[in-house]
Amino acid sequence: MKEIECITLFGKKKSIPKDELKFRPSVYGILIHNNKLLTVTSRNTDKLMLPGGGIKIGEPIEPALRREVKEETGIDIDIISFLNFKECFFYYDPLAYAFHGLLFYYHCIPLSFELLTNAHVDDIEASSPEWRLISSLKPEDFHNNGELIFELIGEVLRHNSG
């Protein structure tokens, strides 16, 4: 049986039998306002993440993004454009699940600004929605894909200034 190398929630490598992987498409928003990036924090690692998450079976990508951002942050969004796609294999330690992930990233703008309190965030992994000054962030602040996130931030900033 072929094994696939996955990255755990805590950055370690773990080999998983291929037939144990669950397929998981997900979608994430890059939202920038007043030189601040909208982030949430991982409940398990205390690292930053972009708002977004899993796409339900039969759910189109853009409605999934609107739903996920609303559940994690409380704000409504307008989706401007598709930015990037990334494939990954990851192991979610708390539930002992391995995933073949397909991650879609979109440039979005906020239509509202009042963020949820932690008690109202409707997500098992995300907490603490916050607008963070981009100049105070580094790729290593992010749970995963920090370098890619910074590339996408740069792309959105160039789009906004042009």
In short:
The protein has helices at 61-73, 146-161; strands spanning 3-8, 13-17, 21-33, 36-42, 48-49, 52-54, 77-92, 97-110, 126-133.
Write the layout of secondary structure elements.
Layout: E1 3-8, E2 13-17, E3 21-33, E4 36-42, E5 48-49, E6 52-54, H1 61-73, E7 77-92, E8 97-110, E9 126-133, H2 146-161
Parallel strand pairs: 1-7, 3-8
Antiparallel strand pairs: 1-2, 3-4, 3-6, 4-5, 4-9, 7-8
At the fourth level of CATH, the homologous superfamily is Nucleoside Triphosphate Pyrophosphohydrolase
Helix/strand structural class: alpha+beta
Oligomerization category of the chains in this entry: single chain
Rg to the nearest angstrom? 16 Å
Number of domains: 1
Mean pLDDT score: 94
Count of extended strands: 9
Proportion of beta-strand residues: over 45%
Structure description:
The chain has a single domain, classed as Nucleoside Triphosphate Pyrophosphohydrolase. Helix content is 18%, strand content 46%. It has 162 residues and is α+β, with helices and mostly antiparallel strands. The protein contains two helices and nine strands, in the order ββββββαβββα. It has helices at 61-73, 146-161; strands at residues 3-8, 13-17, 21-33, 36-42, 48-49, 52-54, 77-92, 97-110, 126-133.
Essential attributes:
single chain, 162 residues, Nucleoside Triphosphate Pyrophosphohydrolase, nine-stranded mixed beta sheet, 18% helix
